[in-house]
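ok new one. same drill as before - structure tokens go in, u give me an amino acid for every spot. 510 of them this time. try not to just spam alanines like last time pls lmao
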């Protein structure tokens, strides 16, 4: 098998290559250690210092210096060649120091995140003076398998404020997730302020599942989320879900609804009952304004138009709507993403990306929808509902969560699948990456987010980053991974992540 029996360091996601040298003198972080970085790398150096100072009690000054000393950590940007992946990095640690090099800041950032995981875990969270900050001599060469590694947070079914989202960003950045998809609009609420249609938030944001007060992001709030995400090399992907999942928009502006529909705020969990009025030209004015404002507020390359479960839109209307909606959403230079249902259209704006959310064993139609994106010059984000969904129960005893795929999703099931083995004929070339969505019908607090997301998001992070495993290697790779995950647990605890120590892993101290 290709999977090493036991990786030298329990790093998640597993690096492409690590060669440790237990006989060589290790690296030691000490009172004299500095983080040495040229001016183009100081922001990553400050990030790393900020992570290590509270843990170690060391001062770790960030300096620009030509002569690095043996206890220093050096961050070095090298010149890019055309083929270099900006996310790739190399890291060496030994008695001469730690050196992280990459062709772009993002690569240095991932090297820094890996270095955090090389320090001993046992001491994390304990008193700094007691610890010896030693890293066994090692060399790591690392680069991701997929360019897109995402997590989705549904801030509609239950609203989460800016600080909760920033905390989520910090936690997912630790495992090299690089996209945060925010599900911003749905039947229960509209969560982002749109200046040209202000009632979306003055009327449409006031509810959530279960009758709570809801909420929304002002333009400044959203800018703060985008800025914080960017500081962790995470791109925000805003989703405006249309033409279904629109009850909150329709309650705010009844002119957008089909005639003769009863419009009431909604706080339940049913799906598929709402639709925009597809033949009404006002709807396209609305979409033009909304996607213009959302595109202005979003520096990243993507906007997501939803398109799932539009069960109250006729097929004819859906097929008229989707090409026009993708054109409008793309018109500000963005690449459009939609759930796989929009692949029913053969007139997508070229390059539109499909997000596949059916099961790992496709039931036919959904697989064809998914192939349709690749045929139209796009690619796929893989989010199978029975492996990548973070809102599905872990087992029958999980209080939170849903079981619509027909069964729960254990940690092992979240780990033991391959994105290139789901849709016939679609392999790595047609796959942009993976994403794990957290729908929040049953999730109301940051502690509950942690419980559903961790540790299963670690599985998705590793599937998105680490080299492909063959079907024959799956069982062995799970055995190896589950040991690494157990070793990673105290790290989550030290970061304040209230993960679920679910069955199937020999958790330390259990
Ligand atoms: C289906 S998955 C939905 C959401 C629900 C979710 C619950 C998808 C694109 N749509 O509206 O929240 O199931 O797991």
């Amino acid at each position: 098998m290709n999977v090493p029996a036991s990786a030298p360091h329990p790093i998640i996601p597993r690096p492409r290559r690590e060669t440790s040298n237990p006989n060589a003198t290790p690296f030691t972080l000490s009172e004299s250690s500095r983080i040495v970085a040229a001016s183009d790398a100081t922001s990553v150096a400050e990030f790393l210092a900020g992570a290590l100072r509270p843990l170690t009690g060391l001062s770790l000054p960030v300096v620009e210096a030509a002569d690095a000393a043996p206890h220093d950590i050096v961050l070095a940007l090298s010149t890019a060649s055309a083929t270099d992946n900006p996310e790739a990095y190399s890291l060496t640690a030994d008695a001469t120091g730690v050196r992280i090099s990459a062709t772009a800041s993002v690569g240095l950032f991932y090297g820094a995140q890996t270095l955090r995981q090389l320090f001993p875990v046992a001491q994390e969270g304990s008193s700094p003076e007691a610890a010896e900050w030693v890293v066994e001599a090692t060399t790591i060469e690392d680069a991701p398998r997929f360019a897109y590694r995402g997590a989705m947070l549904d801030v509609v079914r239950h609203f989460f404020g800016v600080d909760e989202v920033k905390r989520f960003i910090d936690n997912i950045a630790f495992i090299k997730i690089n996209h945060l998809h925010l599900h911003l609009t749905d039947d229960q609420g509209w969560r982002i302020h749109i200046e040209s249609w202000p009632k979306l938030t003055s009327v449409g944001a006031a509810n959530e599942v279960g009758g709570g007060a809801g909420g929304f992001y002002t333009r400044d709030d959203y800018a703060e989320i985008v800025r914080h995400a960017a500081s962790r090399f995470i791109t925000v992907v805003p989703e405006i879900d249309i033409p279904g999942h629109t009850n909150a928009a329709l309650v705010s502006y009844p002119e957008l609804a089909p005639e003769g529909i009863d419009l009431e705020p909604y706080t339940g969990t049913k799906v598929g009952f709402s639709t925009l009025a597809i033949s009404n030209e006002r709807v396209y004015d609305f979409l033009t304004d909304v996607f213009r404002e959302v595109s202005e507020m979003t520096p990243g390359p993507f906007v997501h138009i939803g398109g799932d479960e539009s069960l109250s839109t006729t097929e004819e209307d859906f097929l008229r709507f989707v090409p026009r909606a993708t054109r409008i959403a793309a018109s500000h230079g963005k690449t459009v993403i939609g759930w796989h249902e929009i692949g029913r259209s053969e007139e997508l704006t070229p390059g539109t990306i499909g997000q596949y959310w059916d099961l790992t064993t496709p039931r036919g139609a959904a697989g064809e929808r998914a192939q349709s994106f690749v045929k139209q010059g796009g690619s796929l984000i893989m989010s199978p509902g029975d492996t990548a969904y973070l809102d599905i129960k872990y087992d029958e005893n999980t209080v939170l969560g849903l079981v619509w795929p027909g069964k729960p999703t254990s940690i092992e099931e979240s780990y033991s699948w391959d994105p290139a083995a789901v849709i016939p004929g679609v392999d790595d070339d047609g796959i942009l990456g993976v994403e794990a969505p957290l729908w929040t019908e049953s999730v109301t607090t940051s502690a509950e987010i942690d419980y559903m997301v961790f540790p299963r998001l670690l599985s998705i992070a590793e599937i998105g980053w680490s080299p492909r495993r063959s079907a024959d290697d799956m069982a062995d790779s799970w055995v190896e991974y589950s040991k690494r995950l157990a070793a990673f647990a105290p790290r989550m605890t030290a970061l304040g992540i209230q993960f679920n120590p679910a069955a199937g892993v020999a958790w330390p101290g259990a």
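The radius of gyration is 23 Å. and btw DSSP finds 13 helices and 19 strands in the chain.
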